[in-house]
Amino acid sequence: MTQPRLDGDHHVHSTFSDDARSTPAENLAAARRAGLREIRMVDHVRASSTHVPAVLAAVAALPAVEGLRVLTGVEAKILDVAGTIDAPRDVLAALGTPSGADRVLLADHQVPGTDGPWSPSTTLRLLDEGRVTRADVVELVVTGTLRAVERAGRAQLAHPFSILPKVGIAEDDVPDDLLDALAGVLVATGTPVEVNEKWRCPGPRVVARLRAAGVALVASTDAHHADDVGAYRWLRGAQGTA
Prior knowledge:
Layout: E1 8-13, H1 24-33, E2 38-44, H2 52-60, E3 69-77, H3 89-93, E4 103-107, E5 111-113, E6 116-118, H4 120-128, H5 134-152, E7 155-158, H6 176-189, E8 193-196, H7 204-212, E9 217-220, H8 234-238
């Protein structure tokens, strides 16, 4: 499986995320020790979040490290099949500007349902009751994702299809035509897709099809502790490197 370069980590959380343990400065030091050329510092947001200016200020105040490019981002959930993004409107409007984050990382933490996000337990119940099929769930995930990409304009896909195993569906259940539709939107918008160490997704088939379509791929650890920044174990094994 041909993977992205491993001298970048495009999804790293700091203590501005309530489930992370390292500061931006600690993550920067870890990136330097790992010999990375790029790091994207990312923290979780919701539509009600107010901490993004503080996050960006903290990253901007970090000392420059020769040979290391520091990027920024906010991670937000895709809320529904219409592609609604769980992030403040002003944060989304400022993406790519001097006062904003570089990109919004779109995450399928839940299934983007017809009436809002469906948790894994809700989705499993709907499947058990026969109210939706596995194919329906896959289509919701792909359609919600590509619509969110179109809405955002400056996005990065965070651990794509990580929700599927949580509801008993394999990534290989995503049909080629849906992958191709998603790839078309990703290429048209210049949206990179991360190959995620923590969630081990997307897998070989999806990576190969996206790459063949011209989608940009980046590596990420989804690190929540500095010790994990740039630490690629699954990814190194997947592409047969030491």
